[in-house]
Predict the 3D structure of the following.
Amino acid sequence: MSPSPILWIDLQPTLHCFNQRLAKRLSKNRLVKRWSFQHDLDEACSIETIHSMMLETINEGKERYHLVGHGISGGIAHLFSCKYPKLVRSATLLSADTAITNQWTSHYLEMRSQLPCSRERILFHLSSQLFGSDLSRKFPIFASLLAKCLDEEYILGSIASQIKRGRFKASDIPTLVINGNDDFVIDRTTHTRWSEQLKPGDHYRAIDNARHFFHHQEANQTATIIESFLDMVPEEEMINSLTIKSDCSPTKITNND
């Protein structure tokens, strides 16, 4: 019996380059599919619209996936699993707060609206915060990617109007949250907030000395955590077997003496 596949939710394709190491590592043991969404700049888009597209894809495949997503993609995946728990086997959220609006993009929008700096300087500074000084030579490249994402892909809100939403509610499916301990977007107090949401069987892990895109720099460690979690999620056949056994009447033991 092959394990259930992973469906990687990707709402910001420009930044998918930071997902590829982890996706490749996970694909050694499971089938990994990518669900990518390209925002049409001429049309309004809502979370409900994205969910309807995801629903169509998942129904066509007739499989229950393990959803994986980073940042806003993980948040959308979590909301989908809350809405359609029977269609999802588990959800793994990378760099995720309990508040969906807490994203790197929301920090950029706040900086842009309050600081008297050029967009380029803010994005360069943001790159240093998201990736750390060890990758300083790549900051111009990172800043360019972040700018493209802001201009062409799905984000919540804008400089003029930032969306206010409540916190996530608990999901009925197994959930794994992995964050970096040195992430300035998702700070360490997030663990306390998640502890109020996660149920028995869910897991929260923090990776030391890791920032917002930790899964790019720590792909092997992140993959090991995810694989250990997925291995604990029962497959459909196992669930059905346990259900059948629990429905059987107990055997009466008699003494033949």
Notes: Residues 6-100+167-244 form a domain with the Rossmann fold fold (CATH 3.40.50.1820). The two ends are 45 Å apart (CA to CA). Residues 158-162, 238-257 have pLDDT under 50 and may be disordered.
